[in-house]
Amino acid sequence: MKKIYPVCVIGGGSAGVMATHRTILNNDECLFFSGSLKDKKRSRALWVKKVENIPAHFNYQKGIEEPNAEVLKWINESPFAKNLQYKNNIGVHSIIKKDNLFEITDSKGEVYWAQYVIMCTGVMDVQPYIQGSMVPIFNYANAQTIDYCLLCDGHHVLGKKVAVIGHGNGAAWVSILLQERYNPTEFFILTNGEKPQFQEDTLKIMKLYNMKVMESPIKEILGEGKGKMLKGFVLENGETANVDISFVALGMIVYNELANELGAALDERGFVKADEAGLTSVPGLYVAGDLKANTKKQIYTAWDSAVNAANAINMKLRVERRAKFISP
Ligand SMILES: Cc1cc2nc3c(=O)[nH]c(=O)nc-3n(C[C@H](O)[C@H](O)[C@H](O)COP(=O)(O)OP(=O)(O)OC[C@H]3O[C@@H](n4cnc5c(N)ncnc54)[C@H](O)[C@@H]3O)c2cc1C
Question: Is the pLDDT at 162 greater than 80, yes or no?
Answer without folding.
Answer: yes
